[in-house]
Specification:
Helices cover 50% and strands 17% of the residues. By secondary structure, the chain is α/β, with parallel strands linked by helices. Strands 1, 2, 3, 4, 5, 6, 7, 8 and 9 form a nine-stranded mixed sheet that branches. It is globular, with a radius of gyration of 21 Å.
Amino acid sequence: MTDLPDIAAVVIGRNEGARLVASLASLKGAVPRIVYVDSGSTDGSLQAARDAGAQIVALDLSIPFTAARARNAGFAALDPVPDFVQFIDGDCMIEPGWLAAGVAALVENENMGIVTGWRSEIYPDASVYNGLVDFEWHRPPGDIEACGGDMMVRASVFQRVGGFNPHVIAAEDDEFCTRVRKAGWRVHRLPERMTLHDAEMLRFGQWWQRAVRTGHGFAQVGALHPGYFKRTRQRVWFYAAVLPVIAVLALIWLPWLLLAVLGVYLVSYARTVQGLVAAGLARHKALHQSVLLSISKFPNLIGLMTYHWRVMRKSDMAIIEYK
């Protein structure tokens, strides 16, 4: 069956369809236990998980769904608890060789709490949005501040820090990694291919909504850990709020100041292009992706304000879906 007896996999999903089938197939025979946590799917995902032989956890529909809540429920279903747990989203497939590499890293480094690798988009050229997320996942290896939801975690560390915060609806992985590091454990990225992802992000509206969700994460995680995402939040406020206000005032009183505002945006765009090219992205792709990265501050601001509005009204932190 497997030469990794001390590892289990927790897969989370909601209406992933064929992507979930592929995800479970990539794990079958590679780990002795697979737990699938479903967040109210209506597309046959539960039956697909049964057919794959996974243990199923169906979340209570009366409680707001979050990826953090789903991962916690999956971990809680593991009895007995293994040494290591591979978390993976239901729209991803495990790459051959990753599980062995991840386990080896955790075994050899007792102060390492989380290990991750590279996630790659299956169809990066299907849209500029797919290409953007594919590139953003390829970061340098080594010790890092945080990683995405595809991660291998030392189970004892997961238990010690209390798992994911179920109330965080976006960037819950950043928040979890932050607590792991504060507890004295390393978060490490290996130079290994870890998962294949099927974003299926083909429309501007999907990308925009994803950026709104990201902004919500900036605010919520920043409220829990004030130093985290601090500069990112400052950039969002500056480019999406302060500069537009200055531009409107300039139209009324100082028209020449509008040119200065536009100049700031152009300089920021040029620096973004330069940074992407320096990181290895082809120039023609960098030109396109930098447009989205520049625009993203505006949906990010909507996400930030959504979080603060919810706090002010004491509303539920409902998930923000983009597909």
